[in-house]
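Can anyone check this?
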Amino acid sequence: LPKTHTTLNNLNMQWVSNGNNFFSIILEPISFAPSGFRLQAVSSEIAPTRFSLLPSYSSNSQFAPGYQVSMPLPNQPGFYELTVFAGPLWDKVLKEVDEKIHPIDDPTTPFYCCSWAAQGWFSKISAPFSKLLAHLLPFFYSFTKSWVLSIILLTLFLRIILYPFNSWSFRSMEKVRALAPQVQAIQERYRDVPHKVQTEIFALYKKHNINPILGLLPLLAQMPFLFGMFEVLKSSFELRGAQVFAGWIDNLAAPDVLFSWSSPVIPVIGNQFHLLPVLLALSMFLQQCWAMEGTHQRRGPAILMTAIFLLMFYKFPAGLNIYWISSILLGLAQQALTRKRKLD
């Protein structure tokens, strides 16, 4: 993005859109074909943002600038027509508009459905997953008539897809648990030689074809779906204002609010208490403690991981927290089944 302005003359623009996560305004020229466009930075003094209104940034007018897109008009005086769409970024609505104003067999003009797109650092990873989830979620809602049940069913569907990864990971963890007595014996034997302890433990794991680091693969495999789910939930018009429990979860596309207070005195938390991220952190801590049961591993890393996820998810949409809690609980069920089969 330019610091002041830039003009691109070699692009033939069919239409331009501007909006937020849920609504958009789209302008499409009809009686003329503009060539190029101009992108102009607008200071936060003229176009204030939530960040620029904070005291720590109010003195810097160049912080978080807005951007104005200018479409060139013909030099000749006259009347020029444009199509203007102002409405929700709802796939159902956009498809209906596209069918009315865009010829289906015209491949040169992109449909308005393209105005909804994944954005951000992880958009290249999350885009295909968010598109898949954006189709699956309404599909489950079509027969459940409940967005919470739809999110849970979607979580179950993803768990089934990722079952081989998770099953392999849980079997690996059970092997680590089985070797816990031998690991403890090594730690006692070489108590005064720390480097020897690590060498012997790695040798033991290698002997039994165990790589504890690879146990993180299931979590990594779920990350693209998590990012995709985040994109869907933060910009899904259907979930905007979807209420689950009045006075607590009033909007699945926004954080849940159990109670609030007047002034934001607590860092990160602000002036609202969100219960779902706390339940997520507790379920994650329970999952990790149960996985480490009988292994004599320290709980410090588990506490650290729980704290990180609590801070990450604290202001995420309620629907995303419900998705991740459901995923953890289903993981606990699969882990219990794996352990029972091993005992049997």
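Reply from J.R.: I decoded it. The mean pLDDT is 78.
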